[in-house]
Amino acid sequence: MVPRGFAVSLVAALSVLSGCYRSTVVSDRGTTRGAFRPPTVTRINPPVFPVNPRPNQPRTENSWKPTEKARNWQHIVIHHTASNGGSVESIHEGHLAKGWLGIGYHFVIGNGNGMSDGAIEPTFRWRQQMHGAHAGVKEYNELGIGICLVGNFQDTQPTEAQLASVKRLVRTLSQEYQINADRVVGHRDVKSTACPGKNFPLSEVKSVASGWTPRFAGSSGRSISDAEKSHRLVSAGR
């Protein structure tokens, strides 16, 4: 017969092992916007919004409107992961390893390898209206909405579902926060990098934003005004 005390101890131990592991991220140092509420590290399950079956149709509501007071967003910065697959969780862990609060982007769009193809996931930075850690330039981190598509667009192109989703998201955000097309940029436009890759159709994505006025487009797909170029800062930030 098993002693009663041993049985109680065994049940308690099994309860701990079967419970959810929750680890948290330390709060921002020097953050000026209220108290930081850290996300769960091992599993982030923000709402997943399906691909718009009619991506060319205008949307009448913002599915991603945060409950927190919105920051004064001025830019949208497009990125790729430069990897074949990925997810909010895997990127979050990688950015934690850099000593950051966690995932540096505000939105991630899946390619079917790690996330559903075309799925749009807002991160804790968007839900809490926090600065980003994605541009390497202070202004674009503080006032830029970071959107990252899973994939390496130096080698391949975004999936049809990803392209439909990023257009839908850029259209909605640009209308909601009055961000015109000149301020929808690729990471390479603010930092010395190939991101979001030579095969990413940036001009096509910019065309769905408010105030789209084509100026010039080179082989890279850039289309940026001289005023925007002169407006960029050179100071790095996270």
List the helices and strands and how they pair.
Elements: H1 4-18, E1 75-80, H2 88-96, E2 107-109, E3 120-122, H3 124-127, H4 138-143, E4 144-149, H5 160-176, E5 184-186, H6 202-206, H7 226-231
Hey, roughly how much beta strand do the residues contain? Answer: 5-15%
Radius of gyration: 20 Å
Query: Can you tell me the CATH topology?
Result: Lysozyme-like
Tally the helices: what do you get? Answer: 7
- Helix-strand pattern: HEHEEHHEHEHH
Largest sheet: 5 strands, mixed
CATH architecture: 3-Layer(aba) Sandwich
What general outline do the C-alpha atoms trace?
A: globular
How does the helix and strand content classify structurally? alpha/beta
Number of strands: 5
Spatial ordering of strands, largest sheet: 3-2-4-1-5
Average the pLDDT over all residues and give the rounded result. Answer: 75
For the record, what is the CATH homologous superfamily label?
Peptidoglycan recognition protein-like
The percent of residues in helical segments reads 25-40%
CATH top level assignment: Alpha Beta
Q: CA-to-CA gap between the ends?
A: 61 Å
Residue windows where pLDDT falls under 50 for at least 5 positions: 4-38, 40-60, 215-238
Domain module count: 1
